[in-house]
Amino acid sequence: MLTLNGLTGPARAYSWAYSGAYSGADSSAGKVARTAECQGDWLPGSPTAGDVMKGEISLVGLPPYKIGKKINWSASPYGNRSWEYVFQSLRWMGTLVVEYENSGERHYLDRATEITKDWVARNKRGARGTKLYVWKDHPVSLRTQPLLCLSRHVNAGWLKDSLAEHAKLLSDPRLYKKGHNHGIDQDIALLGIGCRYGRTDWANLASRRLTGTVKLDVDGQGALMEQAPRYAVYVYGRLQVAMTGMKECKRKVPGEITRRAEALKDFIAHSTMPNGYMVPIGDGSADTEPKMDAGTPKQEVRTYRAGYVFGRTAWGERESAYYSIRFGPGMKFHGHEDHLGVTYYAKGRDILVDGGFHSYEKTAYRYWTLSPEAHNVPTVVGGKFRPRTPSKLVKTSYGKDRQAFRLTDKAYGTSRTRSVLVNHGDDLMAVLDTASGGKKVRNVWRFDPSLKLVSKGGGKVVLGDGDFKVTLLQLSSCGRVGGQKVQRGGKLGWVSPTYLSKKRTNVVVSPSAKSLLTVIVPGTDSPKVSCSGGKVTVEGVSFRSDLF
User: Fold this and answer.
1) What's the mean per-residue pLDDT of the chain?
2) Average pLDDT, stretch 9-24?
3) What pTM, to 2 d.p., does this model score?
4) CB-CB neighbours of 285 under 10 Å
5) pLDDT exceeds 50 at position 85
6) Average pLDDT for residues 81-101, to the nearest whole number?
7) Which of 276, 312, 344, 388 is in the most buried spot, having the most CB atoms within 10 Å?
8) Is the pLDDT of residue 22 over 80?
9) Cα separation of 484 and 429, whole Å?
10) In this protein, which residues make up the domain named Heparinase II/III-like C-terminal (predicted)?
11) How far apart are CA 276 and CA 76, in angstroms?
12) What are residue 446's DSSP bridge partners?
């Protein structure tokens, strides 16, 4: 028998410490106690309480689904795992309880109670007909918040029993997702139940685990270790919730959590492009806005040991150039096989982009977006790709108007090396790719969908959007390398800028060579280029042919 407040027996025998909880309201007076459990920022943007009352819910950006009066808890109208998880989280039900607190109108609470009681009765853990994903770690932790919210106004045995069942799973070490945002959510949920009902053992466990998980998920520099910068915003927000929960539970917030949460803000700022959107690396959409004040870091360029270089010309200028480079530990969590990959933003627009994030659905296209072919990376001709291979940043050169970086790994069994130079003011990016043992390399360059093919030939590809033009040049040992292929659609020419979207875009596929120097020049279709004596000059900008 599960216990709350240390008591055993049927739910009606539980003694609950309400700390000012409200188990009903005089709707005629319109006054209902507002509670911390209900008034937080955990509610989704949609659906609204009005939508739910009408029997219609819209989740994860998909079209509205009519749940009706009698809900089908096995519903999966779009065959979408994210929809299923959010549906089972019951956060949409929580909008009704919050509306009850705000308006004092009893019918919102009555419908919330009816929905939840039906869910509890028809989704017993381990019972026939209950979908396995209903009791996965993330739906369990996210569902705890609306259940706790409801418990502030409904004193019922079935609800107490369900919360105790949730706490049992949340405290099970076999199910704990350490070092991951799911683990943080599990700790927030367990802390909430423990603090709500005076179970210090649960609250102590949650507090203890959270410190260890944060140290694994956010490194000492403030970089998120989940390999998708957009999740840093989620983790930062959840850490604010966790710290608030600790304070409300009269617990001291560990200094390590406070420090790393604060350091996350710098990471979020650096991974946000001049247009206000986060660079879409890993499982991150190009339409992600932090919607928080991350502040302005002191440096324009920051290298993170977790595997990122972020750089820009200046803060606060939309026209500023911006670039990202990937390296570091092998792919995990929300990462992609994007090592040695680059993105480039210049003159107020995206130039080089990643394949993007489509969804978490188990489709061939989803797995393609994870692959090297969906990123701006070099490949070793004839080599077999080795997934989850780490890479190293081995050389750097920092200047105010120019930075250069050298990276290497053995993702194809032999060393491949990429050097990247970014020049500011006279904007350009130069990238040199080589492989050891005389092996040849090839690379792919994915351009923003707005850029259409204008011309190609003689080692030069021009793309444009109206009057704006951008040129790609390729050389090998100072000689122009021709034979580039341009795909739009087909096998490679795709990008997913937003959730569940798929757009055709132009991808330039290079010929193979023992060394490939690729130069991206935004703002022109006819750059002047010369190369001799180990020196390359493009539009008056000179640099060594090895980029250092």
Assistant:
1) 92
2) 29
3) 0.90
4) 20
5) yes
6) 95
7) 344
8) no
9) 18
10) 331-506
11) 34
12) 507
Query: Token pair for residue 514?
Result: 């023992």
φ/ψ of 225, rounded to 5, equals -90, 5
The tokens 């092996």 sit on which residue? 439
Does residue 51 contact residue 57 with C-beta atoms inside 8 Å? yes
Which tokens in the block code for residue 121? 């009765």
Q: Give per-residue pLDDT as tens, 352-384.
A: 999 999 999 999 999 999 999 999 999 999 999
The contacts of residue 133 (CB under 8 Å, 6+ apart) are 81, 84, 85, 88, 139
Q: Compute the distance between CA of residue 452 and CA of residue 488 in angstroms, rounded to an integer.
A: 9
Q: Which residues fall within 8 angstroms of residue 537, CB to CB, at 6 or more apart?
A: 528, 529, 530, 531
DSSP states along 404-426: EEEEEE-TTSS-EEEEEEEETTT
CB 338 within 8 A of CB 324: no
Residue where the block lists tokens 């705890």: 144
- Are the CB atoms for 509 and 487 separated by under 8 Å? yes
> What is the residue-wise DSSP string for 224-288?
BTTS-THHHHHHHHHHHHHHHHHHHTT-PPPHHHHHHHHHHHHHHHHTB-TTSSBP--SS--TT-
Write down the pLDDT at residue 191: 96
Fold match between 38-175 and 336-544?
no
Cα separation, 348 vs 243, whole angstroms = 38
**Is the alpha carbon torsion for 372, 306, 185, 203 positive or negative?**
positive
pLDDT of residue 18: 25
- pLDDT single digits (tens) 102-114: 999 999 999 999 9
CATH T-level assignment (fold) for domain 336-544: Beta-galactosidase; Chain A, domain 5 (2.70.98)
Write the single-letter amino acid at 203.
A
Domain boundaries, the chain: 38-175, 176-313, 336-544
Please check whether residue 169 is in contact with residue 175, taking contact to mean a CB–CB distance below 8 angstroms.
yes
CA torsion 169-175-177-178 (nearest 10°) is 100
Helices H / strands E in the chain, number of each: 11, 25
Count the helix, strand and coil residues of the chain and give each as a percent rounded to the nearest 5: 30, 25, 45
Q: Is the domain 38-175 a CATH 2.40.10.120 member?
A: no
- Residue 486 has which token pair? 């341009």
- Spell out the alpha helix ranges (H) of 123-229: 137-151, 157-170, 181-196, 200-217
